[in-house]
Amino acid sequence: MSDDRELLAAWRAGDLRAGEALFDRHIASIHRFFKNKLGDTDAIEDLVQRTFMACVEGRDRFREDASFRSYLFGIAHNLLCDHFRERRRGRRALDFEALSAVDLGVGPLTVIGQRREVRLLLEALRRIPLRFQVVLELSYWEDMTSFEIADVLGLPAATARSRLRRARELLGEEIAALAGSAELRESTTANLERWAEELRVGWLRDDDDGDDGDDDKKRPRGRSRRRK
What pTM does this model have? Predict the structure, then answer.
């Protein structure tokens, strides 16, 4: 099986099958990245497609010492921020260290068949500032280290570690505010990694990517879809 770098080079050279292989390998992770920050299915699918197409268009920005996964998530993160800025065009500049997904107008989500701790964690994540939500979800759902998160966000490793610590503090505060009972607060905070994993394989399960049975509609098409 070819590694990510080989597939990316082949896709850039015009091999659409290599692009499809990259897409299949990383689609679930990129979909997860957008889902809890947007909720809008059309917006999610659009940003997923744009993320993969930007891999081809931004070839000069890919550092050879970086992993393809970090490069991909870095693109996704930039597109997410641009998406919110475009929605708020004409208003004052957005501060992603202060504004949460809820503050940015992301509507409520329906989570069926999940434990109450899982539902609480999901809601608390969406209510902490976006900058901190991003680092926690990369850590919980993508199992990224602080070094990998730093690479995604273009931060020094020490800054990424500090941001992770602060994100956990903010999440704990939000869980406490939303829990409604000491019992639920304690059962949620004591097993955060367990509930995060249940979210990843349940509500954010790999097959929950809007697949309508027609894979060709979901795959990148190469350079023909390049934005002007």
Answer: 0.82
